Structures are given as C-alpha cells and as structure tokens.
Amino acid sequence: MAAATLTEQAPQLVEQALALRSEHGYNCAQAVGCALAPLVGVDADAVYRLSEGFGSGMGGTTETCGAISGAVMVLSQLASAGTAEPGTTKGKTYKLVRRLVDDFRAQNTTTICRELKGVGSETGVLRTCPGCIEDAVRISCEIIDAYRA
C-alpha cells in the first residue's frame, strides 16, 4: 500500500497546527511553520523562533497574514539550495510561493491580515485565523506533493 500523500494527511496537520495555536499560544506563522517543519526536514524550534515576528500580520501590524508567512518559510526550506549554491534556486522557490499566495488569495480575496479579520471593514471578517491556518496548511501540502511528484 502506498504511503499517504501530504494532501491526504492535511486534515491531521491542520488539527496539529490549530492545537499549537489554541492550546500552546503559537501565533499563526508559528502554528503553520511548526506543524509543517518536519515534512521538510527542519527543526520545529528553529521555525518557532524564526517565525515569532511574523504573527498578527508581521509583528502585529496586520499586514501579510502570518499563516502565509509560516508556509512561505516551509516552502523556502523545501526548494532552496541554501548558502552552498546562492541564487540558484530562487526562481523555483518564488514559483512555489506564488502558487501559495495565488491559491490563498483565490479562496479568500486577500492575503492581508487586517482585511481577512475585517478590521475597519464594513463587510466584516473574510476568514478567521483558524481558517487561514487551515488554508495555508492545506495549500502547502498540495504544493509539496506536486513539487515532490
């Protein structure tokens, strides 16, 4: 029997990310990044520390959604060749990140935290933080599966 794809495992990874946020106080970037970190061979503690400033739309500024930022970190780890080959993998990494952003935006109309939360908007909440985490994890799993195929 073939191993389950990440897309098939996404519901469990979403649950894990949501638990990290609700039960352990992780911000959205940390929850997504740490739930997905083992899938790309990176230490969850390092991701936790590196993503701390990306919460609440980058340090509480309500700019880019933290869930997206956490996913970008994971996708970058997946595709980058690192300092051994600087610049050689940027195009590949950017392509993965563009897919994440495009898919997220297609589902939620924006990637901006304050717009998603409905801050200062007459239309109200477009997507809750747990919903953004769910979307970022699910989309990332699809992208990782496609990348590895």
TrEMBL record:
Pfam families: C_GCAxxG_C_C (PF09719). InterPro entries: CGCAxxGCC_motif. It comes from the Bacteria. This is C-GCAxxG-C-C family protein. It comes from Enorma phocaeensis.
